[in-house]
Amino acid sequence: MATGLLSQPSSPPIAPAAAGPIYRSTKTYGHSEGLSCCFRQWRATHSHCNLLHGYALSFAFVFGTRELDECNWCFDFGDLKEVKAWLHHMFDHTTLVAADDPHLPVFESLQRTGLAELRVLPAVGCEAVARHAFDHVSDYVAKKTAARVWLESVEVREHSGNSAIYCNPAEP
Ligand SMILES: Nc1nc2c(c(=O)[nH]1)N=C([C@H](O)[C@H](O)COP(=O)(O)OP(=O)(O)OP(=O)(O)O)CN2
């Protein structure tokens, strides 16, 4: 097995098998949100992407349900404040480093010196960040709605040209 691959996903909440329409709602935290994040992609040795560089990341979440709530909503746009706080904790003036980065000790030293706010992830890159956000927000939404709502996808965007999307692996 290739060592760079992320592990298989655990089972996220999925759309019930019942027939019927699916309602979707979306929430986007755009580039102006200030999620100013530094990447270190140590595996990209063929390109300059293994060098420290950064973007004001944007995140777009798509939620699905077959059953609207008492307000006729899929997921309340205003009920994601904890998600917004988590996004800031993870990606606002932080440096993302992979757990298997051979230079991890250097970054940990920068953190100790107060020169970097480190976030160690299983892997780094738009796809990996989308997967990481999916896992967190998927659990959050399922708990908030007693599994009435599921998370369909997360799109992470570096800028208007580059993005990656992670989709619910259990989608019908
Ligand atoms: N599928 C992915 N491809 C790349 C990622 C990624 O996260 N997922 N990341 C990078 C680099 O880190 C960087 O973000 C992009 O830099 P670059 O290769 O220079 O890409 P540009 O869009 O600036 O290239 P242009 O040729 O100017 O369009 C690379 N790939």
From TrEMBL:
One of its GO terms (molecular function) is 6-carboxytetrahydropterin synthase activity. Pathway: Purine metabolism; 7-cyano-7-deazaguanine biosynthesis. It is an enzyme of class 4 (lyase). InterPro entries: 6-PTP_synth/QueD, 6-PTP_synth/QueD_sf. It catalyses: 7,8-dihydroneopterin 3'-triphosphate + H2O = 6-carboxy-5,6,7,8-tetrahydropterin + triphosphate + acetaldehyde + 2 H(+). It holds the Pfam family PTPS. Transmembrane segments: none annotated. Its EC number is 4.1.2.50. Belongs to the PTPS family. QueD subfamily. Catalyzes the conversion of 7,8-dihydroneopterin triphosphate (H2NTP) to 6-carboxy-5,6,7,8-tetrahydropterin (CPH4) and acetaldehyde. This is 6-carboxy-5,6,7,8-tetrahydropterin synthase. The lineage of its organism: Bacteria, Pseudomonadati, Pseudomonadota, Alphaproteobacteria, Hyphomicrobiales.
